[in-house]
Amino acid sequence: MWVCSALRGARTLAQLQRGLLPASSSHGPAASSYSSSAEPSRVWALVYGHHGDPAKVVELKNLELAAVGGSDVRVKMLAAPINPSDINMIQGNYGLLPKLPAVGGNEGIGQVVAVGSSVTGLKPGDWVIPANAGLGTWQTEAVFSEEALIGIPSDIPLQSAATLGVNPCTAYRMLVDFEQLQPGDSVIQNASNSGVGQAVIQIAAALGLRTINVVRDRPDIQNLTDRLKNLGAEHVITEEELRKPEMKNLFKSLLIFKDLKLRGFWLSQWKKDHSPDQFKELILTLCDLIRQGQLTAPACSEVPLQEYQHALEISMKPFTSSKQILTM
Description:
The longest helix has 16 residues, at 276-291. The protein has helices at 11-17, 54-57, 84-91, 158-162, 167-176, 195-206, 221-231, 239-242, 245-257, 267-273, 276-291, 308-315, and strands at 24-26, 42-48, 58-64, 72-81, 102-103, 109-115, 127-130, 141-145, 149-152, 186-190, 210-215, 235-238, 300-304, 323-327. The protein is α+β, with helices and mostly antiparallel strands. The radius of gyration is 21 Å and the shape is globular. The chain has twelve helices and 14 strands.
């Protein structure tokens, strides 16, 4: 699943592109070398100067923070996940590649620290998420344009906020945009343990829909099955089971006689076709589900920013059951 958009709004990234040199860099700093008490005008950021293995090309660098202009917002990042799209972008295998050097991270949650004189929609203390992919969220602080951010309620869990802007949005739109599904209808999905898959299970259950979930076989398949069913999955079957003759016949029957359809979806294209207010409405709808206990964050492990190498390595392993979230 490809989720990408135009890169814009990050002043720290612009500084990098103008060739400003960081004060220091390291592939693996000791914990004592990373401190939140650094000079207010400097920030820590995970930067890559060329494409390749994320564990090898990503560096923790100390960068100068840009001044806040009239339409700018200074944001302290609180948490940012490592998504497959982040890995692909660093590898150079993504549908959209930023100019290098670039700060990693397409998603995350931050808190407004200061705003420029022309900013009207945000204030210090507000929680914000990226309006589009490619903002560069793997950094302790940054200065963004107001239009690059979406304000969200601060009364939801931090992990839910950090993972709100991509997978749950994709899941919701896929469920409501293509068919007039009614309570009791069934939805079949593959990769059900992914972030999108877990969101589909929960949102579908909230809408009264049943899900048939296909996953790869693995040593802990029973634990995975139990976890997905606890989220609301109706059925969980493995790809190996799907290859059995009776299952093949079932899906052939659905395809031929029940007009089963396969559709691709790209969230960034949906954003291009809809207004920022409509995206904000989507975000608020998902926040309501979170408050009602009908939508939770995927299984997550919080990792300090300075331990990014370990987090990247885990994110690239097969059958990873926990999303790595960088904390600042």
